[in-house]
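README: folding subset

This subset contains proteins for which both the sequence and a predicted structure token string are available. Records are stored as plain text. Below is the entry for DNA internalization-related competence protein ComEC/Rec2 (752 residues), shown exactly as it appears on disk.
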Amino acid sequence: MANHGFLAVLPVLALSVALSGHPWAGSGLLLLVLVRVWTLHHRPTWLVTLLLLGLFGGYWLWRDHQLTQRQLPFDVARTMTATLRVQPDAVAVRGAMYYFVGQNSQTGERLTVRGVAKSAAELQTLQHLTRPTLWQVSGQVQGILPATNFNQFDGAAYWRHRGIVNTLKLTSVTHRTAAPLRWWGWFSDWWHGWRAWLIHYCERLPGALRVYALGLLPGAKAAETMTELQGMQRLGLLHLFAISGMHVALLLTAVEWVCVHLRIQREHWEWGMLLGLPAYFILAGSGSGVLRACLMRGVQLTGKRCQRPISTLDAWSMALLIGVFVNPGLLFELGSQLSYGLSLGLILLREESRAWRQGGLTLLGLPSLLTGVFQWHSLTLLANWAVVPLFPVLILPLTLVGTVLHPWLPVISRGCAWALQQFDAGLAWFARLPGNVPFGKPAWWVAWLWLAGTWWLFTRPPQHRRKWLIGLLASYGLVYGAIHLPLSGEVTYFDVGQGDSILIREPFNRRVSLIDTGGRLGFRQPDWVPKTPPSYAALRTNINYLKSRGLDHVDDLYLTHHDADHIGDLLAFLQELHVKRLLVPAGMEAEPAWQQKLAGKLPPVVPIKTGQALPLLVRHPDHAAPAENENSLALQGTFGGLNFLFMGDLDQAGERKMLAADAQLRTDVLKLGHHGSKTASAPEFIAQLRPRWAIISAGRQNRYGHPNAETLATLREQNVPAVSTQTSGMIRYTYRGAQGYWQTKLKGAHES
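--- output ---
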């Protein structure tokens, strides 16, 4: 019956695929699974399958209809005044910024909310909430912005899967009061309060212990998590801990061991554990890995108490059903894929030898990792073999001992923190060894075929697997080659908000050039704002995209001038990628201010000026000067049968210099200077260039009013169509030879 129960789940999964992003693939998969269930000739399984399809499909369609009616446009903000109910553990503070998910008390709608603390007292209040509160607020509400760059994390889809479609940016908070406990939600409120207390407690722990305790106990993330756990992340080990739910199973096993050795009657502690699992689910952060682990243990305990034992596979199947019922997009999220996929692998491969089981788990997790993070370390298998056994005997005990004893024996707590830090340092050293493979993002259907091929491999007898394994690994090699030696090139304008960043990649990746990195303009914070580790938007936008294309280097990185919205994320590029050389406008190489921020990590810096071909032709500047807007680089090149001109932040005076230097200057595609400001794009400049398209890179609802109405009027008068990252997201021209086509992330594809 275990296999029949497992098969009854598969049609529901296929339906979730069809309704959550891949309608044709999901429908085809659903048809195949239904045919397989029918061939079983097992009437109960067939009836259960149809019942589940009806229940889940009906609920998902109704839910999607409700969310669609509630969703606001993401590009139009509306003023909103409301009373929000906020759980104390929902508020995350980073510097003066804070974020949470709140519920509108009038409508019951849940929204993501972001705001800025106005004083040290307000910040202190936010950091010490311990019970639900009611906030009287005003702000701007709009739909959640979807991914605006290709291969970027899609926050709108993530939150929609959780029943949230709108976001609120606070402009004022007039009052905060303690919320009355709801009689129907007192249990949830109580445990959210305890989780808030646990988070505050863990945040006071020293060093690496704070990172581990926050991640493994309340399921929260410390500000320095990605810095502290960099080695673990590069080796692909993070999912084995906080994401996969391994720590949950170990903690529950430890509780069981204590109860047995205290001679508590099995019936009592099993009922106690069963009733305590919902509380622990809230206390541990309610993540997908925690949900799976708690559900599996709860299902099996319920079966035991009802004298109807439930197999591990059936428990997994029921946990998955509940998981996709709560989150229809569960199969499209990396954490859920790894948690459910690897736990299923442990169940089905339990009879295999250790070597085959470890290899099988690696192959099962690899498609998800490549699709989600685009790289894999060849030492991951060795790291798993060495580190995973240490988790229950070293990492978790050190975390628990250091956390529990901190108030009474802080010296032991500091010792545990030191030991965990040494462990992290060892992993970081190991991760720096040669072997990291910048694979790139495979197509989704390729990842599915790899998963199917892996399961097929393990249905073969061990003595017959070698040829199938060689074939599977060969398919990875072929896909790697296709990603790294593409037949097409591209010119891509990233959506980096209020900034610039442009990729020029030639066919077969012969040369990879980048013009500017993007970045945020910095504003001095009051002294009461706590310092936080630097964050770079490039890691989510242009660096993320380069890695998704299998690129780990940039041959030429042009910095048009020294403004932060153009070069602010340079340090992230130097840390994450191999940059062979920087090309800057003549005079910028002598400026110490921007170099000092990089702490001596600069590759060779080449000053350039008019007339040089690198291979982009430099059109401006013609002399060395400080790298202000008026000295910005202007670059020109031809790709895919079109001529492109990139203007940086060059002003109208610089444009007139370019016209004077070349009276025959023309271009097909013009990236407007200074984000479409009226200080650039002079009418005579546009008239002479006669571009077929104008590209504008500017932030949504930016404080500068870019692009300016005068600039847009100039383009209309010259009959030049304009495309902006504000409304279209990433703008990409993909070409082969002298032919190509345009794509925008938010508005589809167009032929050139």
